[in-house]
Design a protein that fits this description.
With about 325 residues, this protein is mostly beta strands. The chain has 7 helices and 20 strands. The chain starts with 10 loop residues before the first strand and ends with a strand. Its cofactor is Zn(2+).
Length: about 325
């Protein structure tokens, strides 16, 4: 059979810091007022995405990769990763601050967890007034200074807090200490990994009065103690794929769509589009597919040509 643009049922996650914006801003069918994450595209064990449209509706992403590895993933991606889907796509709603955390690199994650590391990027979709993120240290630091401040509950004094607004992008290499702040809706693109070392959680307790587990010792040799420049500046030329992040793990472009854009692919990689504002269509061989803010669509690598049309802000993601 011929593959087609695939959409998936969102995998909704309750979080102590979550809210209701995934419904009010993105139209997700959340069932609680503390829904923090919508996993749009995942093959994480126990959280594998299920196709929501077309002939393959009801089948899992893993099933389709196993049946059509080159056609779906692309020849280069299949050669590099086998039948593993290498990326995870999410939308997040932070009603409260997330925990301060860090992710290990590939080497450490493989050794400890038999997992990929977790390089990621954030695209800020919506920001309340004075919303901020924590990203890295204010100045170059070291393990001794970090532990002293952690024990004294003064960690925030040595971490860099940055005010953000809609459209800001941050690229977080493994080892970067970080936290999404309250009042933000974020599109997140990351390696397929759910390995997080939680450093500090503001002494919060859940409904049962329990604090969440911290991973202070595991984090010590995972942290990059040097100051980082995580913010990415990028062009916003209409009806063009503007480069935002280009790394070993993924390439992300920003498309301010106001009309149409012809896209040609070489079959090396799948492409994912995340609609962060507005609405648009994708036309393939005369068949028109409609998407709106909050939608995520996977274009199999075997589709060589498509046309994007509409008025929207769109993230375009693939692997080189």
């Amino acid at each position: 059979m011929k593959l087609y643009p695939l959409q998936f049922n969102p995998i909704l996650k309750e979080r102590i810091w979550g809210g209701t914006k995934l419904k009010t801003e993105l139209g997700k069918p959340i069932a609680s007022e503390i829904t923090g994450e919508s996993w749009e595209l995942s093959t994480v064990e126990g959280d594998v995405s299920i196709i929501a449209n077309g002939e393959l509706k009801g089948k899992s992403l893993t099933e389709i990769i196993n049946a059509f590895p080159n056609e779906l993933l692309g020849t280069e991606v299949y050669s590099r990763f086998g039948k593993q889907f290498p990326l995870l796509f999410k939308y997040l709603d932070a009603r409260e601050d997330l925990s301060i955390q860090v992710h290990p690199n590939d080497e450490l994650a493989k050794k400890r967890h038999n997992s990929f590391g977790k390089t990621e990027m954030w695209y800020i979709m919506q920001a309340d007034e004075n919303a901020r993120i924590i990203v890295g240290f204010k100045e170059n630091s070291n393990a001794k200074e970090y532990v002293e401040n952690l024990n004294n509950k003064t960690l925030l004094t040595i971490l860099d807090s940055v005010h953000v607004q809609s459209g800001d992008v941050f690229f977080l290499e493994t080892g970067t200490v970080h936290a999404i702040g309250a009042g933000l809706v974020v599109a997140e693109i990351q390696q397929t990994s759910d390995i997080t070392y939680r450093l500090y959680d503001f002494d919060r307790v859940d409904a049962q009065g329990k604090t969440r587990e911290l991973h202070v010792d595991l984090a010590l040799d995972a942290i990059n103690y040097n100051r980082v420049e995580a913010k990415r500046n990028y062009e916003k030329t209409e009806n063009k794929s503007n480069a935002v992040v280009d790394c070993h793990y993924f390439t992300t472009n920003f498309i301010p769509l106001n009309g149409s854009l012809e896209v040609t692919k070489n079959g090396n990689s799948f492409t994912v589009y995340m609609c962060t504002e507005g609405a648009f269509t994708i036309e393939i061989n005369g068949i028109v597919n409609h998407y709106k803010k909050g939608d995520t669509v996977l274009i199999p690598a075997s589709i060589p040509e498509l046309n994007l049309n509409g008025k929207a802000s769109v993230l375009e993601i693939y692997i080189k």
